[in-house]
Every structure is written in C-alpha cells, then in structure tokens.
Write a structure and sequence with these properties.
The complex is a heterodimer of chains A (344) and B (247).
Chain A (H helix, E strand, L loop, with lengths): L1 H31 L4 H28 L7 H22 L7 H61 L4 H17 L1 H20 L6 E2 H19 L3 E7 L7 E2 L4 H14 L5 E10 L2 E9 L13 H14 L5 E6 L2 E9 L2
Parallel strand pairs in A: 2-4
Antiparallel strand pairs in A: 1-3, 4-5, 5-7, 6-7
Helix pairs in contact in A: 1-2, 2-3, 2-4, 3-4, 4-9, 5-6, 5-7, 6-7, 8-9
Chain B lengths: L1 E6 L3 H11 L6 E7 L2 H11 L3 E4 L8 H7 L5 E6 L5 H8 L2 E4 L4 H13 L2 H13 L10 E6 L2 E6 L3 E7 L2 E6 L2 E5 L3 H7 L5 E5 L2 E4 L3 E7 L3 E6 L4 E4 L1 H11 L2
The chains are: A alpha+beta (344), B alpha/beta (247).
Chain lengths: 344, 247
C-alpha cells in the first residue's frame, strides 16, 4: 500500500509541474502577441487552471470507471465536452481582466486554437490515465492470482504429505493390541515409535528442507514399525555416503517411496523381502534409489508409477517445477525407484 | 467342537485372534495358523474347517481370491484393517467382519453369531458372499484359477478371450486355457467393459486382440484374433462391438 501512496503523490507532483509549465508557456505565448506581462500571466494562469480542472476530472473519472472496449467513444465525447467547457470559460472569464477591445478580439479569434489545444491536452491526459490505471489493475490482479496460487500450492503440498495410508495406522494399532497381551514392553516401545513417527509427519513444513540424516532417522521409525508388523519377512538395507549426510531434501519424500516398495515387495511374494535404500551425491543432485523385488509374472499391473509415487512426483513438480526428477525401472525381478533432489 | 483356521500374513494379527479365542476353549479348536492364501487353501482342503478367520490383504492372492478357489467354502469372519471395496459386501454376507484393531467384546459377538447359526445357513452365506465378491479389490486386474493342485494367477492383460464351458468359464491365454467356476455374466460385469465385450452368448473378447471382423452368414460375423482363433459374433454382439469401437 505504501508504494501506491508514493506513486500517487509522485503523480500529483508531476501533474502540478505539468500545469505550471503549461501556464508559463501560455504566458510567454500571449506576451509574444504584444500584450503586457500582467495580461499574459493572468490569461496563462486562468486557462491553465481551467484545463487542469478538466484534466483532473477526467483522470478521476477513469480512476474509478475503467471504460470497456466499446465505450472509447464516450471518452472522446467527454474530452470534446471538457475542451468546450474550458474554451467557454476562457471566453467569459478572460474579458474581466482587461476590457481592452484588442484583447477581447484576440480572445475571440484564439478560441478555435484554444479549443483544439485543450482537447489534445485533455485527450492526452485521458489516455495516460487509462493506461496507468489499467496497469495498476493488472498488477493487483496478478498479485491476487499469485497469492491464490501459492495458497493452493501450499494446500496441495500439505495434502500430499498427509497421504499416510490408513492401512498402516490401523494395522500398527492392531499389532500393538497383540503385543499388549504378552509383550507389554514391546507394545510400549511401539507406541513410542508410532507417536514419534506421526509427530514427525505433522510438524514438517515443505518450505523447510531437512538433511538426509534427519530424513533417514524418521524413516527408520517407520521401518521399525513395519518390521514389528511383518516380522522376519521384511529386511532393509540402507547405505548412505558420508558426504551426502548433510544433503537437503523435502521432508517425508522418501517414506512414500519406501512404503510403496514394501507394499509391492511384500504382497508380491510369500518369501522374505529385502528393500534396499541407497543415497549418493552426483554433481549437484542427491540421488536416492529404492529397490524391491517383485514378480513380473504375477505382479498386479502397475498403473503408471503407482499411487504413492504419483504423489511424490507431484510434490517434486510443485517444489522444483520439474517432472524429470523421478524415474522407475523394472528388470530382473527388481523394481527400482530413483529420485533426484537438486542441491543449492 | 467347532474347528477353526486363522489366515493372516501378520503374525501379531493372528496372535490377537488366538488370544481372544481363549475364552471359547470349550467350543472352538484352532487347527492351524496360515501365513498366506496358499497355505490357507491347502489347510482348508486338508481339514475342512467349520470357520476361518480371514484377512483380505495378503501376499500373492488376497482373501477373496483364495475363497474363490475353495470348493466347499466354510463360514468366514473377515479381519481387515480397512477396505473401501469390501465392507459393503461383508455387511450383507459374511458372518461378520472385524475391523482391526477390534475389541474383545466385538470379537466375542462375531464368534457367538457364528456359533448360533444353523449349519446350512452358513454355506448359503458364504456362497452369496462370493457372488458379491465382484467388489473385491483386485477382481478386475487378475483372475486366479486352480490347475490341479497349483494356483495360477492370470493378469487380465494376458487374457485373450473367455468361453462358456458348461458350468465353468474357460479363460484362454497364450499359455493355454484354464477353467474357472464362475458364470459368463460374472465376468461381463467385473471385467473392464471398455476392454472386454461379450460378443456372443458364449464368448467375451478382448478388443485389443481383434485383428479382423468378417461377415459370416446372415446377421452373424466372425472375429479373428491375433492368435488366429476365430470367434463367432452374434447380431447383438456385433452391435455392442460397434458401439465400443465407435464405428
């Protein structure tokens, strides 16, 4: 708001300066016709004030009513009318300064030229105002639009992060229910893991990226819970270069990928399953690779990249404006998901 | 004494059922715990139990698919975390469905419901349950069949066409054909009807596999598939095909 105030006061200064220059020029011109400085100055000032009033009127008009495309003719008529009013004002006011017949006839003779200069000046003012105010409007619209877009994006990111599978939660609670009966200590431990994990998913803000170490610690909570659920059937391997530990990434980006890998790995075989997670740093990218075994013959047909992965893809798209940061490969009974996180 | 199986891929989930069943020691005997649908299938055939506790989401084949393969299905109590598709079906036809985590009281109610019912009623219930299994999760993605003692999972993408065969439906694939004890109208309803069209009383075709449709006698046509198979197309079947293909 302060900036618009500033531009408006600037506008006023420019308007006033323009009026003064106009009055000075007019005075000089009238003096050139052989009238005294007093008469010339009075003429200049009165004409300029009239013109200024007309300009101010049209400017104010356009400030509140942007003409639609078809109504430019109305502006034209307004300009003509205002120019006419100015000329008329000159015709009736100026003779009061000096009743000299030479000056009176000069006034009458100069009416046509006065009318046209006034008309041009008012028309020019109208045009400037129109452009100025439509630009202001546009700026405001753009600002509103980008704000709305940002809000929508934040909401979408929030939703994407919240896409925790209810299956996971209910099954974990069921496991806790089982443990309470004969291993209360483990039940308690699992409750803590589950609440730490849930707390972690709640407080994360997409704008604040986390380090890989933090993300892996959070992921470990998830993996520990899943291991309690599936027992010996689920094994995990995590390898992470020393140098990528401080790499940053959006929070909770790895978890849905691993969840997907576990789900498809475990439900595709009755044997035990090893899900491996590898982190590497290449050029300016942190590369994360998640692999799970699958059975190409009986695997449920995967639609695209799968539900969990499409959420990750959308998030990467929203955060980095790129769609090429995630890829999946399926060969030799191994399904691989790779994501790349640009490092700043 | 009723004989019972517990089929669930999560050991702790089976433990809960086992623990809750302690209260029914007099009436119920647990025969075995099964890790997945295959083990479940084998155990059902071996023991012919009166009741099974069945999870839906399990490796390879889900609970519904396992049930489809059982000849004289026992009574079923489903135990599942949450299943968008299935709950409606359970509500009407399973003895009961237990949403994990369930309380002991809730579990007792389910078991008492089972103990109270007349045996003949149980069979009917499970049969009608299978009828509504059209809503089960993986139904339109794959077809599970039994060949001898083995279980075969056929992804829908591998199916070329389906043919009526007495009380069965013969599922034709590149690897041969397999019998499934379902009706043609069951498949007509469950398979994606933008991909599969019932072109004849006894045939459902996959549109992708059609290479040519030739006229044959009056009103009838014949479709030639990629594999070379020739399938009769009836008058109404031809109309349906034209509609789906947009010609």
């Amino acid at each position: 708001m302060a900036s618009t105030q500033l531009t408006f006061s600037k506008l006023r200064v420019a308007f006033l300066t323009g009026g003064l220059v106009w009055a000075a020029l007019l005075t000089y011109l009238v003096h050139g016709f052989g009238f005294t400085w007093y008469i010339a100055l009075a003429d200049g000032i009165i004409s300029s004030v009239l013109l200024g009033a007309a300009c101010w009127l049209i400017n104010n008009n356009l400030r509140y009513f942007q003409p639609s495309k078809g109504s430019y003719i109305n502006i034209f008529i307004w300009c003509v009318a205002l120019a006419g009013a100015c000329t008329f004002g000159c015709r009736w006011i100026l003779p009061y300064i000096n009743t000299n017949s030479v000056y009176t006839s000069f006034i009458v003779q100069s009416l046509t030229i006065r009318f046209f200069t006034d008309f041009l000046a008012i028309g020019w003012m109208a045009m400037i105002s129109m452009i100025w105010y439509s630009q202001q409007d546009q700026k405001e619209n753009e600002k509103r639009k980008s704000e709305a877009e940002k809000l929508a994006r934040d909401a979408e990111l929030y939703n994407l992060r919240q896409q925790l599978q209810p299956h996971f939660l209910f099954n974990s609670l069921n496991s806790i229910n089982a443990l309470i009966g004969f291993k209360p200590d483990e039940a308690r431990k699992m409750i803590h893991q589950l609440s730490d994990f849930l707390r972690g998913t709640l407080k994360k803000d997409d704008q604040q990226q986390v380090t890989l170490t933090e993300e892996l610690a959070h992921l470990q909570l998830y993996l520990d819970i899943e291991k309690v659920r599936f027992g010996h059937r689920l094994m995990t391997e995590i390898s992470c270069d020393q140098k990528c530990q401080d790499s940053i990434l959006p929070p909770m980006i790895l978890q849905p990928i691993v969840e997907n890998a576990i789900k498809f790995g475990l439900y595709d075989t009755t044997e035990s399953v090893t899900v491996s997670i590898r982190a590497e740093k290449e050029d300016n990218y942190l590369t994360l690779m998640v692999q799970n075994p699958y059975d190409p013959k009986t695997a449920r047909p995967r639609k695209g990249t799968g539900f969990g992965l499409s959420g990750v893809q959308r998030r990467l798209d929203l955060l980095f404006a790129r769609t090429d940061l995630i890829e999946t490969h399926a060969n030799d009974n191994i399904f691989t998901t790779i994501i790349k996180i640009p490092q700043v | 004494m009723k004989r019972v199986l517990i089929i669930d891929d999560e050991p702790l989930a089976r433990m809960v059922v086992l623990e809750y069943l302690q209260d029914f020691k007099e009436e119920i005997e647990v025969l075995q715990e099964c890790n997945d649908g295959f083990e479940g299938l084998k155990a059902i055939q071996q023991y012919q139990p009166d009741l099974i506790f069945l999870d839906v989401q399990m490796p390879k084949i889900n609970g519904f698919e396992m049930l489809e393969l059982v000849e004289n299905p026992p009574s079923v109590i489903f135990t599942t975390a949450f299943d968008e598709y299935a709950i409606k079906a359970f509500e009407t036809h399973a003895i009961d469905y237990l949403l994990k985590p369930f309380s002991k009281d809730r579990f007792k109610k389910a078991v008492e419901k089972f103990l109270a019912q007349v045996p003949s009623q149980a069979i009917k219930q499970t049969e009608s349950l299978l009828g509504t299994a059209a809503q089960s999760p993986a139904q339109h993605e794959r077809i599970v069949v039994k060949t001898g003692t083995k279980v075969k999972i056929i992804p829908v993408a591998d199916v070329e066409y389906l043919e009526a065969d007495d009380d069965y439906v013969s599922v034709h694939t590149k690897e041969g054909s397999f019998l499934k004890n379902k009706t043609m109208s069951f498949f007509e309803q469950t398979l994606d009807n933008s991909q599969f069209v019932r072109v004849h009383r006894s045939y459902i075709l996959k549109i992708q596999d059609i290479t040519r449709i030739d006229p044959y006698e009056k009103d009838a046509h014949i479709a030639i598939l990629k594999s070379g198979a020739k399938i009769p197309v009836s008058k109404t079947g031809y109309a349906k095909l034209k509609q789906v293909l947009g010609i």
